[in-house]
Amino acid sequence: AQSVTQPDIHITVSEGASLELRCNYSYGATPYLFWYVQSPGQGLQLLLKYFSGDTLVQGIKGFEAEFKRSQSSFNLRKPSVHWSDAAEYFCAVGQLLYSGAGSYQLTFGKGTKLSVIP
Amino acid sequence: ETGVTQSPTHLIKTRGQQVTLRCSSQSGHNTVSWYQQALGQGPQFIFQYYREEENGRGNFPPRFSGLQFPNYSSELNVNALELDDSALYLCASSRRRAGASETQYFGPGTRLLVL
């Protein structure tokens, strides 16, 4: 069965510092990979996704992630963090339900809470 | 373009009761997935509906059931509520197309508290 591990439960960074959130996955086939962000009491917003192709993926709000098959990792990075980035971040892997149209279920990690010091 | 909406936003029920949560898909989307997010956890997949049929199911008991309507909106029904059902219930919509990989877009969720 697929699984996602986010080793860091809570990370605190200073505003303007760089950020890297770690994500490791376990999945038998080529994975669909995602990063979502959740603000308190809110739903999930998609930051970026990897389906195939270029292993360095650009997302919204200045985020990027790199798929490394050999390490089963999909770490999220941002060169300079803003106070508004404080939130919880979830990495997810998509398991195909219907391969003909890329329909899948998402398996999420437990999340990494990001705090930003002004 | 209208995003995914869910109702109600909050709900309090007592153990043993039944609850219905509702989701309206984003415009142009034909697939709905439901997830349960317990406090401090990542969301867990409950099931997915496409063309009014269940397309896949996670590790949830049969008392969790769903419907999808011709306009692609959806309901999640939970019978015989248990305390552990207290969670944020998230709906995600997507557009299934042949040969394409879809993206799931989430609604704001319904917060259910079972007393």
Features:
heterodimer, A: 118 residues, mainly beta, six-stranded mixed sheet, four-stranded antiparallel sheet, globular, B: 115 residues, seven-stranded mixed sheet, 11 strands
Characterization of this structure:
The complex is a heterodimer of chains A (about 120) and B (about 120). Chain A is mostly beta strands and about 120 residues long. Chain A is about 0% helix and about 55% strand. Chain A is built from no helices and 12 strands. In chain A, strands 2, 5, 6, 10, 11 and 12 form a 6-stranded mixed sheet that branches. Chain A is globular. With about 120 residues, chain B is mainly β. In chain B, about 0% of the residues lie in helices and about 50% in strands. Chain B has no helices and 11 strands. Chain B starts with a strand and ends with a strand. The model of chain B has no long low-confidence stretch (mean pLDDT about 95). Classes of the chains: A mainly beta (about 120), B mainly beta (about 120).
Outline:
The complex is a heterodimer of chains A (118) and B (115). With 118 residues, chain A is an all-beta fold. Chain A is built from no helices and 12 strands.
Q: What form of chain B results from the Cα inertia axes?
A: globular
The two chains with the largest interface, and their residue counts, are: A-B, 27 and 33 residues
Number of strands of chain B: 11
Low-confidence blocks of residues of chain B: none
Order of secondary-structure elements of chain A: EEEEEEEEEEEE
Please indicate the percent range of residues of chain A in DSSP E strands (runs of 2 or more): over 45%
Structural class of chain B comes to mainly beta
Q: What share of residues of chain B is helical?
A: under 10%
Counting DSSP E segments of at least 2 residues, the number of strands of chain A comes to 12
The whole-angstrom Rg of chain B is 14 Å
Give the averaged pLDDT of chain B, no decimals. 93
Q: Which assembly state applies to the chains in this document? A: heterodimer
